[in-house]
Amino acid sequence: MLAFLCFYQMKFAFNFDKVQLRRNRFNQLQEIVKNRIDEKTLNPMFEESGIRVNAVQYQIGRYVVFVVWMFFLLILQMKDGTAIQNQLLYVIILFLISAPKTHIFNRKTPFKMAIDFLTENHRYKKNLEIYRAISQLKNLAVIKQNKPPGSGFILDQLRKFTKIMRPIFNRMIAMWSMGMREEACEYFKKAVGTKEGEELANILYKLEVLNPIELKGQMILFQEIVKRERETQKMRRNQAKAYLIYAVVSIASFAALLNFLTVAFFIDMLEGMKTIN
After folding, report:
1. Looking at the DSSP assignment, which residues form a beta bridge with residue 90?
2. pLDDT exceeds 60 at position 124
3. Are 185 and 204 in contact (CB under 8 A)?
4. Over the Cα atoms of the chain, what is R_g?
5. For residue 37, which of 65, 21, 71, 61 has the smallest C-alpha distance?
């Protein structure tokens, strides 16, 4: 019995040391990645684009996908003798263009183009929810004209009609309920990051002093402003899509050209070796 307990204790200690070693290695990997990327620049970019990972998580995931993909290609070659030169070339190209760099030779990288497109799309979705919130606020002003509701009730009703912006509304309502109304509106402006969000925050700040008729008038005027801004954003989104398509076409053309040069080089090299022989 004593021998069994000693063996179990030794096994537990070994496993614990092994877990600690794995944790230390993971922490070391995180530190290495942190030292090679600019978190202060990349993290706000990821947050504004709606991507729910930080720069370190993105970089680690990128390396993991690359290693697993390479390992899979090597297994295919060893198992079936499949030629993997082309696939290997595409993997390397994708790995390089997915690097978290914003500019190369003063030009936007494909990574930056993709982030810009996602950021514009995320802002567009937030503005759609703001537009719905405005319509709901106008309806509340009409329905509750004889008995105006409190600002807390209005904010809670607006929150129910949001999805992407719900965490922003949740934090704003928490600050509002603590009497930090000015701070709550400033937080809302920064968190949304759009002109429409800033205008809505200014109106929400005046909820306590606006009567239903004035609130309705503010909402009608704001809807006209948002409508014109949505048309401008639509043009920007179409332009961003055009840039993204151009980037994809450029990458595909570059890959095809690189593949052609690689094949031509190997053919010339093989011909030269035959001549030597």
Report:
1. none
2. yes
3. yes
4. 28
5. 61
What confidence score (pLDDT) does residue 170 get? Answer: 92
C-alpha closest to that of 187 among 207, 167, 212:
167
Q: Computed from CA positions of residues 248, 251, 252, 253, in that sequence, does the dihedral angle turn out positive or negative? A: positive
The full 3-state SS of the chain, as one line of letters, equals CHHHHHHHHHHHHHHHHHHHHHHHHHHHHHHHHHHHCCHHHHHHHHHHHCCCCCHHHHHHHHHHHHHHHHHHHHHHHHHHCCCCHHHHHHHHHHHHHCCCCCEECCEECHHHHHHHHHHHHHHHHHHHHHHHHHHHHHHHHHHCCCCCCCHHHHHHHHHHCCCCCHHHHHHHHHHHHCCCHHHHHHHHHHHHCCHHHHHHHHHHHCCCCCCHHHHHHHHHHHHHHHHHHHHHHHHHHHHHHHHHHHHHHHHHHHHHHHHHHHHHHHHHHHHHHHHHC
Spell 7-17 as b/e; 16+ CB within 10 A means b.
Answer: eeeeeeeeeee
Q: pTM of the prediction?
A: 0.64
Instruction: Examine the pLDDT at 52 and tell me if it is beyond 50.
Output: yes
